[in-house]
Amino acid sequence: MNTQNVRQIHPYSTDLERLASVCTLLMQFRRSSGCDVVKRRFKLFTLFLGVGREKLLTLLPVVSNGLIAMCFFIGTSQAYGNQVLRLGRISSSPDQIISSEILEQVYRRLNIKIVFVDEPAKRCLLSGSSGQLDGLVARTIDVAGDYPSLIPIAPSINFIEPSVFAKDPNISTGDGKSTRTYKTGTVRGLDYAENDSLRAYPLTMADSLDSLFKMLNANRFDLGVADLFSGMIRLRELGLDHEIRVVFPPLQRIEVYHFLNERHKKLVPQVRRILREMEASGELWSLQENFRRKALNNTFP
Questions:
Q1: Is the dihedral angle over the CA atoms 219, 221, 227, 228 positive or is it negative?
Q2: Averaged in consecutive runs of 10 residues, what is the pLDDT profile of the chain (301 residues)?
Q3: Strands, DSSP E only, in the chain?
Q4: DSSP E strands: which ranges in 142-253?
Q5: At a CB cut-off of 8 Å and minimum separation 6, what does 177 contact?
Q6: What pLDDT, on a 0 to 100 scale, did the predictor assign at position 26?
C-alpha cells in the first residue's frame, strides 16, 4: 500500500493531528501488542511516516511524552472549538480591562473563543463560583479560599494597588494607620475590601467605582479606597480628577490571578502553560506596561 492510499484512509487536516493519531496508536500497540488489528494499523502508519517499525519503536521513549502533550492540546482545542467561554469582569474597572486584553492573547493561542461579562464585583464572584460564568478575568488569590469552586491559575496576570483617595487636601497619610479615624468608603465585593488593613475602618460600601467617587465627592465619607490605576483613570473620565486626589503611597500591592470554574479544570494546565511562556519571555510584563501606558494616554480600547 502506498502513501497516497494511506492519506486517503486517514485524511488528517494538520500535521499535529497526524502526530496525535500516531501517539494514540503507539500507546495502543504497547498495551495490546498481540492484537492483529492494532498491528495492521501500526504498519499502515509506519508506511505513512516513511520509517520502519523497529526504528519507530526505538524513538517511542523519547517522543511519547511530547506526543501525548500534543494529543491533549488538540483535544482541548477541539473540545472548546465551538464553545465560547464567558468570563466575569468587574464593571467600570480599567485594571480589569488590561487583564482581559492579556487573556485575549492567551486564549487566542489555544484557539478558544472568550467573551467578557461586565458585572458589579460581588455579583461577578457569585456568578463565577456558581458556574453561571466560566471564570473570572482577574482577582486576588484570597478568592480561592472563600470560593473553592474557582481555580486560580499562576502566574499572576496583573496587579492592583489599593490606595486612599481624598477630597480634603489636609489628609496626608496613605499608610492606613491614622486613617482609621476617618469615615471610609470602598467598593462592595472587591477582594481587598475585607483585608485586615480595612476591617477596623467604619466602612461604607458602594456598588461600583463610579458610585464610590461620586459619594466621596458628595462628602458621604472622608476617604475612598480603590485601586490606584483604576481610580486615577475613572476620576479623569468622571471629570473629578481636580476634586479628588490620591493620597500616596498606596496601601499595598497585590498580584491578581485569572480564575476558571472547576468544571473547566482540564483546561487549567493549558492556560497555565501559555502564561508561563509569556512570563518567561517577558511578554506578560510588556503587555501590562503597554496597556497601562495606552490608558494613561487616552488611547485605551
A1: positive
A2: 40 47 49 47 48 51 46 52 90 94 97 97 96 98 95 97 92 58 87 59 86 96 93 94 93 95 97 98 95 77 48
A3: 84-90, 113-119, 135-140, 150-160, 162-166, 184-187, 203-206, 223-227, 245-247, 254-261
A4: 150-160, 162-166, 184-187, 203-206, 223-227, 245-247
A5: none
A6: 47
Compute CA distances 295 → 94, 227, 243, whole Å.
8, 15, 21
Could you give phi then psi for residue 138, rounded to 5 degrees? Answer: -165, 125
For 57-81, b/e burial (b = at least 16 CB within 10 A) is eeeeeeeeeebeebbebbebeeebe
Classify residue 293 by burial, with Cβ atoms within 10 Å: 0-12, 13-18, 19+: exposed
The C-alpha cell at 144 is 480561592
Q: Supply the angle between the helices 228-238 and 94-109 in degrees, to the nearest 10.
A: 120
Residue with cell 492556560: 271
Q: Which of 191, 177, 199 is nearest to 255 (CA)?
A: 191
How far is residue 206 CA from its own chain's centroid?
26
Of 96, 93, 40, the closest CA to residue 233 belongs to 93
Query: Which among 230, 244, 198 has a CA at the least distance from the CA of 91?
Result: 230
Give the integer Cα–Cα distance in Å for 101 and 121: 18
First to last CA, the chain: 57
